[in-house]
C-alpha cells in the first residue's frame, strides 16, 4: 500500500500543475525509491479512474522514450557515484547518500521545532543546501588554509577526459569496480564536459578542517516563469587513507517556491527562500533538512540532526558531509 504522506504530497503537487517528472525527480532526490513513487502515482490514478471511468490515467515513465533515457542515466550514473537530476538544470555528485538507505547514525537534537512555516507550505522543489547567504558569527568557520584542493578536482576531471579509471579512483572517494567500467566509459566524456563548465572563481566560500572541506558559491536569486528560486553550487572533499579525495559536485542546487502556489508579498517570499537556504553551522546541509522539515518532511528515511552543531554525533564528520557518504 502506498505511503499516505507520499500520496498527499503528489496530489498537492499535481493540483499546482507541477509536471510529473519534476515531482519524481524531487522525490528521488529526497530518498524515495522509484517503486514507492510509482505506487503512489498508481494509487492516485486508480482513485481517479474510480471517480471518472472516462478519465485518462497519468502517463508512466515507460511511455516516454526521453524519460527512459533520463532514468537509465540515473541508474548508470549512480553506479559511479554521479547523479544527474533535471528540472531545467544539471546537477550531479560523486557519492549517493548511504544514510538515505536507512542508517540512523546521527543523533536527534534535543530540541526540535516542528511547526510548519510558510516556506514549507509553498516549497515545490526544495533540495539539499550547503552554505547560507550570511555567516553565523558565533560558529568557528574552519576556513580553508592556503592549501588549495582544486588540483584534486582537476586531476579527477582529467581522469574523466582520458577515461582513466586508475586515475579517477586515485582522486575520487567513490571507486569504480571492474563491473562498472563500461558505464564509466560511456559517461566519462559527458561528465568531463560538465566539470569544465564550473567556474572556480565563483566558489568563494571555503570551510575546512583536517577531515573535510566544502567549497561553495554564494546563493543567487534566479526566478523563472513558474517559480521564485535561489541556486548555489558546491564541491566537497574528504580525506581518506591520509589523502584528499573528491566527494561530491553539485553546480546548481535549487530551492524554489511555485508562483502558482502562493499569494505572498515579495518580501515574504524572499523571507521564505532565505529560510530554505539557511545553513547556520555551515556543515553542508540546510537547517530545514537537518530538522526534517520542508521537502524532507515527506522523506521516511530522514534523520534529524542539530543545525547549530556541525558534527551532531561527534564522529569527526560534518553532518552535510555524512549525508553524502
Describe the protein in words.
The chain is of the alpha+beta class. The chain has 2 domains: 60 residues, no CATH class; 224 residues, no CATH class. Strands 1, 2, 3, 4 and 5 form a 5-stranded antiparallel sheet that branches. It is globular.
Structure in a nutshell:
With 325 residues, the protein is α+β, with helices and mostly antiparallel strands. It is 35% helix and 13% strand.
Please give the radius of gyration in angstroms.
20 Å
Chain oligomer state: single chain
Structural class: alpha+beta
Mean pLDDT: 75
Residue runs with pLDDT of under 50 for 5 or more positions: 51-146
Strand residue percentage: 5-15%
Largest sheet geometry: 5 strands, antiparallel
- Specify the number of helices: 11
Number of domains: 2
Q: Topology as H/E string?
A: HHHHHHHHEEEEEHHH
Q: In which range does the helix fraction lie?
A: 25-40%
Q: What overall geometry do the principal axes of the alpha carbons give?
A: globular
Span between termini: 30 Å
Number of strands: 5
Write the layout of secondary structure elements.
Blueprint: H1 4-15, H2 20-29, H3 34-51, H4 65-79, H5 118-122, H6 150-161, H7 165-171, H8 181-196, E1 205-208, E2 212-216, E3 220-221, E4 227-240, E5 243-258, H9 266-277, H10 287-290, H11 319-322
Antiparallel strand pairs: 1-2, 2-4, 3-4, 4-5
Which tags fit this structure?
single chain, 325 residues, alpha+beta, 2 domains, 11 helices, 5 strands, 13% strand
Amino acid at each position: 500500500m502506498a505511503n499516505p504522506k507520499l500520496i498527499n504530497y503528489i496530489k498537492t503537487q499535481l493540483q499546482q500543475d507541477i509536471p510529473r517528472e519534476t515531482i519524481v525527480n524531487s522525490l528521488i532526490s529526497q530518498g524515495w525509491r522509484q517503486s514507492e513513487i510509482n505506487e503512489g502515482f498508481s494509487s492516485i490514478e486508480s482513485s481517479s479512474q474510480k471517480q471518472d471511468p472516462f478519465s485518462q490515467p497519468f502517463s508512466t515513465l515507460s511511455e516516454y522514450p526521453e524519460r527512459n533515457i533520463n532514468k537509465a542515466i540515473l541508474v548508470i550514473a549512480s553506479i559511479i557515484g554521479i547523479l544527474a537530476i533535471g528540472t531545467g538544470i544539471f546537477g550531479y555528485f560523486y557519492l549517493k547518500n548511504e544514510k538515505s538507505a536507512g542508517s540512523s547514525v546521527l543523533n536527534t537534537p534535543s530540541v526540535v521545532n516542528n511547526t510548519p512555516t510558510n516556506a514549507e507550505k509553498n516549497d515545490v522543489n526544495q533540495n539539499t543546501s550547503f552554505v547560507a547567504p550570511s555567516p553565523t558569527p558565533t560558529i568557528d568557520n574552519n576556513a580553508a588554509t592556503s592549501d588549495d584542493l582544486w588540483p584534486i578536482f582537476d586531476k579527477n576531471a582529467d581522469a574523466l577526459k582520458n577515461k582513466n579509471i586508475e586515475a579517477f579512483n586515485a582522486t575520487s572517494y567513490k571507486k569504480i569496480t571492474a563491473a562498472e567500467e563500461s558505464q564509466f566509459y560511456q559517461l566519462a566524456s559527458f561528465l568531463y564536459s560538465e566539470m569544465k563548465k564550473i567556474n572556480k572563481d565563483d566558489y568563494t566560500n571555503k570551510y575546512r578542517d583536517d577531515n573535510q572541506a566544502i567549497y561553495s558559491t554564494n546563493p543567487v536569486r534566479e526566478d523563472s516563469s513558474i517559480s521564485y528560486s535561489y541556486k548555489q553550487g558546491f564541491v566537497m572533499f574528504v580525506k581518506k587513507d591520509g589523502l584528499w579525495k573528491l566527494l561530491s559536485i553539485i553546480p546548481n542546487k535549487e530551492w524554489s517556491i511555485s508562483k502558482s502556489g502562493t499569494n505572498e508579498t515579495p518580501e515574504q517570499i524572499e523571507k521564505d527562500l532565505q529560510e530554505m537556504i539557511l545553513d547556520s553551522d555551515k556543515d553542508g546541509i540546510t537547517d530545514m533538512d537537518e530538522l526534517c522539515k520542508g521537502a524532507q518532511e515527506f522523506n521516511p528515511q530522514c534523520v534529524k540532526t542539530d543545525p547549530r552543531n556541525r558534527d551532531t554525533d561527534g564522529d569527526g564528520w560534518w553532518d552535510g558531509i555524512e549525508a553524502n557518504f
